Amino acid sequence: MEKKKILLLGIAVGYLGALMPGRKREGKTRPVKYYAHRGLYNNSGSAPENTMAAFNRAVKAGYGIELDVQLTKDGKVVVTHDFHLRRNCGVEGDVDQFTYQELQQFPVFHSEERIPLLEDVLKRIDGKVPLLVELKYKEGSRICEKTSQLLDEYKGAYVIESFHPQVLLWYKKHSPQVVRGQLSMNYQKIQGWFKPQYLLMRGLLLNFLTRPDFIAYDCRNGYSLSLQICRHLYGCPVYGWTVKSKSQLRKVKKYFDGFIFEGFRPEPDSGH
Fold first, then answer.
1. From the candidates 37, 174, 232, 272, which is the catalytic residue?
2. Annotation marks residue 37 as catalytic
3. pLDDT in tens, 76-99
4. Which one of the listed residues 81, 84, 164, 272 is annotated catalytic?
5. What is the phi/psi pair of residue 35, to 5°?
6. 241-268: per-residue pLDDT in tens?
7. Roughly what angle, to the nearest 10 degrees, separates helices 142-152 and 118-125?
């Protein structure tokens, strides 16, 4: 019985150690409670997701902006979510199979908008609202290097985040001053992915390596034990994504410190 208690204690200590995020850092970014997911967008209108028009609307409304970045064939950092172009541009092929100039031929959701360069988005936003920059990782560190070069010159408030632990490891080593966030979700329930790495990532059990400064978690699973331990025991800020209505916001509000939202407008708060 004593050995069993020691074993259970060891497992508990190991679990809590694996969950340990980075030390809480103050003053690294302007606090904001609500981030407009891919801008304040309307994919059936003139301001589709991750376009200048959607970002302009978010700035005007005073919300923080969440956006996604990846690389083109010629190594440009562009703002778009999907690796493939089928959903947003009706084109077969991945973003990195086209140069930036080639991408400019493709309307985004049948609008007048095109996939923008990150550097142009940064110039347009110009520090007016905080940014939450998600790095879409395929392989290698080029997306981290290229994005970091642009953000290092940016004077506005921003943080970075990614689902892939390699992105956080890169920033931890090369740009430790940048606030970094771990994106996660219930991969098994939502995606049907059951490989061991997705179990670890779902449970935030790589935190001891990546040491995230905040966590952004699928709002439908805000009750996750690992997430709430990070929040309440370690004081790690947690954000819920993607909240899609006021009623859903009311249901999940107790689990999170801030929210990434779409499809409605939350009430303004002092974080704006």
1. 37
2. yes
3. 999 999 999 999 999 999 999 999
4. 81
5. -115, 130
6. 999 999 999 999 999 999 999 999 998 6
7. 30
